[in-house]
Amino acid sequence: MAEKDLSTTDPATSQAASASGNSMMNGNGGTPLLDQSIHPDAALKRIQRSGSIAITPELFEKIYLTPQTEVKGDLRKTFGNPTPLALLGLVMALTPFSCDIMGWRGAGGDGAAATGSYYFMGGLLMIIGGTLEWVLGNTFPFLVFNAYGGFWLSFASTLTPSIGAYGHYSTSYSDLDPSAGLSNSTSFATSFAFFLLSMGFLSLMFAICCLRTNICLAVVEWALTIVFSLLAATFWQTANGNAAVAGKCLIAAGAFGFVACAAGWWILFALTFASVDFPIQLPVGDLSHIIKGKAQQEEMKVKAAEHQV
């Protein structure tokens, strides 16, 4: 819970805060909360020049893609922001995958050509970024980035012939022919669809939580929820022998994946522009002030009760 700010390094700020009663602590060393009248993009420029100015909840959510929470220590001033790194991994894996499964310019193979990017972009970068979010105390990005990083590593491993994920579904499987199972992939397709469906449920949970963050991230998560659902349908229809329906589901999955990519690229541009104090700052559509958190609602109830008394 925020506390009254009793000491600031700027006498003018302290005097203004005492007059208004709105000077709050952010839990990171007792720095004064930036004037709410200042636009978040202008605020970011001041933050980059001074480590003694706290950021507003809206600006914090834009930078870290999670509502602001109090944490011990001062690691957010010590380390850089890992969020762009994880987003970079997501869009660099999801973009070629979406284009591949839509069949643009003759692409195909269920995205197998980009297996390397799934390992080292989608998997490695997202897990590194997610782990650093955990170090900074940002639970939601930590969970989201590591979950999708794990997906990309799992998907890349499935596509790697030497692992033989689909080769085990053939009676003629051998180390010399690890892809033999693809010739009779009914069992494999049915089984793999359950993993994709599980990812769809996970993305749905993230999508609901994103209603407390921003519009762009919500678009990414809701689109990914549809992507995984359509991919699961693709594999099940393939197992049923409905190749035409499976093809339509696959193309639709790629289209929604491209929507997620567009929103992801927008967030990445916004964060990268902010990191270099670029003259143009991109909005991401803050939602934290629309859907109030549980703690905020309780605080509002307490204040309302105090006014009634």
Automatic annotation (TrEMBL):
Main location: membrane
Cited InterPro entries: AceTr (IPR051633), Gpr1/Fun34/SatP-like (IPR000791)
Keyword field: Membrane, Transmembrane, Transmembrane helix
Entry's Gene Ontology molecular function annotations: acetate transmembrane transporter activity
Transmembrane segments: 85-104, 116-136, 143-167, 187-208, 215-238, 250-273
GO cellular component: plasma membrane
Subcellular compartments: Membrane
Composition skew (Low complexity), residue ranges: 16-26
Region feature (Disordered): 1-32
Membrane topology: Multi-pass membrane protein
Sequence similarity: Belongs to the acetate uptake transporter (AceTr) (TC 2.A.96) family.
Record's protein name: GPR1/FUN34/YaaH-class plasma membrane protein
Lineage: Eukaryota, Fungi, Dikarya, Ascomycota, Pezizomycotina
